[in-house]
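#structure-requests
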Amino acid sequence: MSTAVPDVITRYFKADARRDINAIIALFTEDAVVIDEGQTRRGTAEIQDWQEGPASQYQYTTEVLATKATGEDRFLVTGRLEGNFPGGTADLKWRFTVAGDRICYLEIAP
């Protein structure tokens, strides 16, 4: 990653690459918010539903292209997904907010 980011963000992408849902859930605070594909999930139970449902629908790889801090506990990761989803590639931005060693907010959008 081009700019140093907290270890929890690096672990998120590693767990996602392994499709390790339990490891991903463990990275979030109990009241975390995830926004993906315009849908908001609140709390680890809804985040788990997202990981077991929409986030697992396709197989893909993620190439992280850049990272930068956008605030004291906020980070922007840009990257490209390639996989068997419609279109086959997607350029995305992951906006993270961390609290200590956990993720409390994640928004994934083009």
